[in-house]
Records
---
Amino acid sequence: MAFKSLLTVLSDTNLVTTPVAQGLALARSLDAHLDSLCLGVDRSQTGYYYAGANAMILQETLTRAHSEAEAIENEVKSLMQGSGVRWATETGVTQIADLGRHVAARARFSDLVILPKPYGQERGAELEPTVEAALFEGQAPVLMVPDNCASVTTPKTISIGWNESAEALVAVRAALPFLKTADLVRVVVIDPPTHGPNRSDPGGMLSQFLSRHGVRVEIDVLSKTMPRVSDVLLRHARDSNVEMLVMGAYGHSRFREAILGGATRNMLEMADVPVFMAH
């Protein structure tokens, strides 16, 4: 399936440029349509207001969110006008607790959602649930682009973090339009199991599947020589000049990853190349 409907979800004027630039580059390359959802987020929790709070306080937070949404849309329009691609913008205001519903409603009818890195300094609390809403409720693949990262359209070298999970396979299938145009796809297997049907040929079935789609594949079997799987994947990506990483998202529960960490959360925090994810 080709990527014909692209979506960016933006909630911070400081995090507009890179996702929109990536969206425009893909839309131009793929003859696709780019939509931008510009959200003003009321980050206060109404239930936490003290008993004496009145409607004026609620109105103030909503007014501020409206102003933020308009500022984001103006920034997006300044980047999109004259770009030569088909595009549209939409503004909205939501409380942070209801954010997922609005994101999922748009992501469900998008082929790819392009989002900024959700973790780091001066990142709003709404960025993480935006990623999760697109992946889970929206059932759409997500392309996470780090700040100031060069836009990719036809990455020449792609790395797949492969652990035979259902999430990883869903991500591979969703990423096929990128994989087919790459010069080389590296299937990275870290500490494959010593028991199981694929123990003698880790990644072999996946490479066969991809090769039948015309993808040139190499398998890299690595040891977990660093504390986290994401560290090994990122080091391998840097050593191999990888332009995009493909991986399944949230193989563990979101609650577990939020409390204990996990490959998805760590990758979203540390990656310095675009990461294509699906669940």
Note: Strands lie at 5-10, 33-42, 86-95, 112-116, 142-145, 157-161, 184-190, 217-222, 244-248, 275-278.
---
Amino acid sequence: MYKEPHTYQHETLRFIHITDTHILNHAEETFDQLNTRNSLQAVLTHCASFYPDIDFWLFTGDISQTGTKESYAVFQSAIRQYDIPVYCVPGNHDTPKFLQSVVPDSPADSVNIIHLNRFSLVLLDSWVKNEHHGMISRHCLQQLGDHLQECADRFNIIVLHHPPVEVNSQWLDEIRLQNPAEFLKVLGTHCDNMLVLFGHVHQEVDLQSDKLRLLSTPSTCHQFKPGTSVHCTDTLPPAYRFIELNTKGCIDTRVHYVEV
């Protein structure tokens, strides 16, 4: 089902960022009146049509709403229709070991690094059992630091589910990454050649922190209204993000909303 990327000998990388699909146990089930399997399918169809020569699809967590084997089978039934590499990190609703059974490169209690010639895709596990917030373990922070020291000449794409910065929504900021200072300290002086991608917030975020660019993408499920103190859904449809970057640090990105 998965294949090795085919264009990484070039100086440019083109991929799709998808997040928070919240797949249920059966394809016909709905989540707050939305069939999340169908909304994911609509997004994937749009991706494949508008970006047929993409390098890979990247999913940043909450693949499942229930964390069950059945939900990952539903997810697998959607992505296996396409001959495109898929990478994932787990979110708070996921079960990492079950996600690994469908996407073997998904990390669990470790950092998984995909070397793509002049780029590195650095997949982090911020999952905490029975919690909505995230945490990166000391072991993973050490792995991340070691990689950045050894591969400072690469462009590093750092991927996790939980935001390591505040997004100006009180309720979401309370359940973000719980050790952001430690995480950002490890990133340290390597930010010139780095992009951080995250999910969890169900909205578009594009932040610049000194030299570090941080992006999130709206969900393929329901969106959250930005700038709120309590949980509040938005009326925007499912979405995904296209990203093109090169080894010189130029980043071109746009978000596409897809009517279901």
Note: The two ends are 26 Å apart (CA to CA).
